[in-house]
């Protein structure tokens, strides 16, 4: 049982994307079972941390996730991470691996754009000195925008003719044109609502009156809704990173009642050091330190001689760990990689849902109190109803749906929207039971 949630990791060559992927997809090699039938070579598994209800309901000892794991009431839910081909300027015109890159995006719910904050690679990923990375976010977004806009613009005269003939609603016509980008009608509606709220297009409801610029503005707003973007500002411990970070944060400081600049806002920019995270994890595997991803520090035998299970560090490893501690952990509070995953999931507002057989013991059995509790956690889109969740779980649950209830034996209506902390622990009853 799984979420269909997909995060696409994008960026120019040599920005540190491979290091970032290694840093976030190796969190639990010991947990080898994944809720995905096929993992392609350019895909991996990352883990989204959240508070597990097992602690609140006193069944921590019985909590045995089928996928991922739970430790001290902290649950780690697997999500699919897609490694998209490195992008260079001109990708929308087929330069480099542009066509593959842009086709891969159709699968994604959220983008993580890895940006080299150090200025040591130019826009083509070649080694450079003093390169200004401030424009990297803008040109990547412009390539995606040019791809979508170009595809629609070529068909626009025919679209307008059909729209007039069928007298369709503007949102329905636009959704028909954008469905190929893995979108839903709700996303198109939100984009239209934003256009209306910000008064970006005068003839809002009559797309036959739209100018080329009107269409371009709508596409930009649509992309904000369809591909929320988290920027992993990487290599923060490198020389010159500080001034580049300050310039990027200033450029993307959010303004109220204004369309996002290049689809990015300051709160969705996370400072990261992927190589530091990779090194810390390697030191953990080799039993030199105690460390958990997201922590603001680690412990070695130097820090606590009582940790006799740890090995003694050599001078080279000690110097590197001291640098990571000073330049990354103490300065920024963490390596940032886990925060990127958290922001990616929360950017869409996905809701964790726990399907159970019993709303009393939360187990796989309604009669055996010792059975494994909260075995499954499924991330669903905001606005998902109880009946839609049943359908997502299995078509037979939908066909034979007889009712649903949550904690306290409270009955749920099939059109009740699932809300975290309110009704997201669900027992579904079927006529076949």
TrEMBL record:
Matching InterPro entries: Beta-grasp_dom_sf, G_OBG, GTP-bd, P-loop_NTPase, TGS-like, YGR210-like_G4
GO molecular function: ATP hydrolysis activity; GTP binding
Domain OBG-type G: 5-292
GO cellular component, one term: cytoplasm
SUPFAM superfamilies given in the database record: P-loop containing nucleoside triphosphate hydrolases, TGS-like
Keyword field: GTP-binding, Nucleotide-binding
Pfam families cross-referenced by the UniProt entry: MMR_HSR1, YGR210-like_G4
Name the UniProt record assigns to this protein: OBG-type G domain-containing protein
């Amino acid at each position: 049982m799984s979420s269909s949630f997909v995060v696409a990791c994008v960026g120019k060559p040599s920005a540190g994307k491979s290091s970032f992927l290694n840093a976030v997809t190796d969190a639990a090699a010991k947990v080898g079972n994944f809720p995905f039938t096929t993992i392609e070579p350019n895909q991996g598994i990352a883990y989204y941390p959240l508070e597990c209800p097992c602690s609140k309901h006193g069944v921590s000892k019985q909590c045995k996730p089928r996928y991922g794991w739970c430790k001290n009431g902290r649950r780690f839910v697997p999500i699919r991470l897609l490694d998209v081909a490195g992008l260079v300027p001109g990708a929308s015109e087929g330069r480099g691996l542009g066509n593959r890159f842009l086709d891969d995006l159709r699968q994604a719910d959220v983008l993580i754009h890895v940006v080299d904050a150090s200025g040591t690679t130019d826009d083509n990923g070649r080694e450079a000195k003093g390169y200004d990375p401030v424009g990297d976010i803008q040109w990547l977004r412009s390539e995606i925008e040019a791809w979508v806009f170009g595809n629609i613009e070529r068909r626009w005269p025919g679209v307008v003719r059909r729209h007039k003939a069928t007298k369709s609603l503007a949102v329905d016509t636009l959704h028909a044109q954008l469905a190929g980008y893995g979108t839903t009608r709700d996303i198109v509606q939100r984009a239209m609502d934003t256009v209306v709220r910000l008064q970006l297009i005068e003839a809002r409801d009559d797309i036959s009156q739209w100018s080329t610029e009107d269409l371009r503005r709508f596409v930009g707003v649509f992309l904000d809704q369809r591909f929320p973007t988290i920027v992993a500002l990487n290599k923060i411990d490198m020389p010159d990173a500080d001034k580049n970070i300050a310039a990027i944060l200033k450029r993307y400081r959010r303004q109220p009642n204004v369309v996002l600049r290049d689809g990015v806002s300051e709160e969705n920019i996370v400072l990261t050091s992927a190589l530091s995270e990779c090194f810390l994890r390697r030191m953990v595997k080799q039993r030199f330190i105690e460390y958990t991803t997201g922590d603001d520090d680690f412990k070695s035998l130097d820090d606590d001689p009582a940790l006799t299970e740890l090995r003694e560090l050599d001078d080279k490893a000690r110097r590197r760990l001291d640098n990571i501690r000073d330049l990354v952990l103490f300065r920024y509070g963490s390596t940032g990689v886990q925060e990127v995953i958290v922001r990616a999931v929360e950017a869409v507002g996905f809701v964790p849902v726990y399907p159970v057989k019993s709303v009393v013991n939360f187990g796989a059995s309604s009669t055996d109190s010792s059975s494994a509790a909260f075995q499954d956690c499924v991330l669903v889109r905001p606005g998902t109803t109880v009946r839609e969740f049943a359908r997502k779980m299995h078509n037979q649950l939908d066909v034979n749906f007889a009712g649903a209830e949550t904690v306290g034996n409270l009955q749920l209506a099939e059109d009740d929207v699932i809300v975290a902390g309110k009704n997201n622990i669900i027992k579904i009853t079927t006529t076949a039971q």
